Amino acid sequence: MYTIDGTPACLLITENLTRVHPDDGERHFYPAFVKAFEPGFTATDWDYGTDYAAAKEKVDAFNAEHGINKEAMKLIVTSSMFPAAPITVEQIFKANGEDYVAS
User: Fold this and answer.
1) Helical packing angle, 52-65 and 70-81, nearest 10°
2) Neighbours of 29 (CB within 10 A)
3) pLDDT by residue (tens digit) across 45-75?
4) What is the pLDDT of residue 47?
5) What are the distances in angstroms from CA 82 to CA 29, 79, 87?
6) What spatial distance separates the first Cα and last Cα of the chain, rounded to whole Å?
7) Quick check: 103 pLDDT over 70?
8) 103 and 6 in contact (C-beta within 8 Å)?
């Protein structure tokens, strides 16, 4: 399970996570990190280009390489958007096919 400061986290891209690129004036996609149970996100400076589908593939590949499956990602993002949602750390680990062991 990928974590930031001990909290489950994932990389996220949406169609709104864009910036106008200074070299070509086009919208480029920049992913962000989302931590479970923490509102908001941390933007990266990783330019994933102008194609949303390609940017999403890169985000999905990053998450997979770092041990986050799509179900765990959904729970991480949901718990960030709705901190009062009845989601637990244990559920995130279970969705990712792991057992949670408190440290």
Assistant:
1) 100
2) 23
3) 999 999 999 999 999 999 999 999 999 999 9
4) 94
5) 24, 5, 9
6) 14
7) no
8) yes
